[in-house]
Amino acid sequence: MQSAEETVKFKLLSFQREEEKKRLEEQRKLQAEADERARRERERLIKEAEKLKSPGLKEQRMAEAEMVEAPVITVQKRLQKSQVFPPGKSGKRK
Fold it and tell me: How many domains does the chain fold into?
């Protein structure tokens, strides 16, 4: 009996590790995309600023470009059914 319990625990831990690995990979991918969008927006604002003749507007656009930052991306862990619904509740409507 103990061997079966250990096997189930091992498989559960393996599954959880794999899910965490997937979550972190998705988070890295989404963060890289957000960083790239922010970089392109900064470049766009800098090019726009370089075209301006007014030093005041040019300085304002450059300041705007410096303020552009990518949001911090966080991918939440997926909830297991037992975490979503308390014991005895299936989540199905009657």
Answer: 1
